[in-house]
Amino acid sequence: MARTALITGASSGLGAEYARQLAARGTDLVLVARDRDALGDLADALTAQHGIGVDVLVADLVDAQQRALVAERLADLLHPIDMLVNSAGFGLPLAFERNDIDDEVRHLDLLVEVPMRLMHAALGPMLQRGSGRIVNIASVGGFIPRSTYGACKGWLISFSRWANGRYARRGVTVTAVCPGFTHTNFHERIGIPPGEEGIADWMWLEARDVVAESLRDVARGKAVSVPSLRYKAIIGLTRLVPASLVARAGERGR
């Protein structure tokens, strides 16, 4: 597994869980997010528990100047990044027609432009060394029409498939991780209290299981990782039922 991993969106949710599990494997970390206090607390805890090296980069990735600092770290040949985990993101209500268009553009930038730019920055040094892992946190929503969120995640899945096919032969793998509904603080951050998401209990996954299964798929060099058998089955069904039903299913949850 990687020697040094850079993780965006590392202050909470799946990003923080990747940090915890990679730290437990002895991987040094570069943690990126906007919340300086949360990053500092996580870095201190992981250093104390696992004795690893942890650097903190406080950055709003939609801001071009701040994002450039992260890209510069990825391109640093003297301090190589062996794994990039693109986990930064946020959600919006499904009612596109009522959402502020500037919020939608920021959403698009963070879920598509940012990982594209960071992948580009990481690929050069990784290909030069002949090794590297890129992990893009997508979603089952990328297979199911779900407003602009599903569209953004669909792009990430498609690009990861292409990039893995192109670069794996040169030692660099690219994996799109596609979890279903996962217990993190994601929904609370967009104003939905726990238990009010409108999702059946059986559809929920635990973050630790999502990350553990995805890291196994990353180690195997898989282009797409769908943690849990239940969501693998759901994705399989989307290929068999009419598109109109799939679209209606995408309206479930908030």
SSE topology sketch:
Blueprint: E1 4-8, H1 13-24, E2 28-33, H2 36-50, E3 54-58, H3 64-74, E4 83-86, H4 101-129, E5 132-137, H5 147-167, E6 172-177, E7 182-183, H6 186-189, E8 205-206, H7 207-220, E9 224-225, H8 229-238, H9 243-249
Parallel strand pairs: 1-2, 1-4, 2-3, 4-5, 5-6, 6-9, 7-8
Describe the protein.
The protein is α/β, with parallel strands linked by helices and 254 residues long. The protein has a single domain, classed as 3-Layer(aba) Sandwich (Rossmann fold), CATH 3.40.50. It is 48% helix and 15% strand. It is built from nine helices and nine strands. Strands 3-2-1-4-5-6-9 form a seven-stranded parallel β-sheet, sandwiched between helices. Helix 1 (13-24) links the parallel strand 1 and strand 2. The longest helix is centred in the middle third of the chain and has 29 residues, at 101-129. The radius of gyration is 17 Å and the shape is globular.
Task: Output the keywords.
Rossmann fold, 7-stranded parallel beta sheet, two-stranded parallel sheet
The structural class is alpha/beta
Order of adjacent strands in the largest pleated sheet: 3-2-1-4-5-6-9
CATH homologous superfamily assignment: NAD(P)-binding Rossmann-like Domain
The main pleated sheet reads as: 7 strands, parallel
Strand content: 5-15%
Helix content: 40-55%
CATH topology: Rossmann fold
Please give the CATH class.
Alpha Beta
User: Uncertain segments of ≥5 residues (pLDDT<50)?
Assistant: 187-192
Q: How would the global form be characterised?
A: globular
Determine Rg (CA atoms, Å). Answer: 17 Å
The secondary-structure element order is EHEHEHEHEHEEHEHEHH
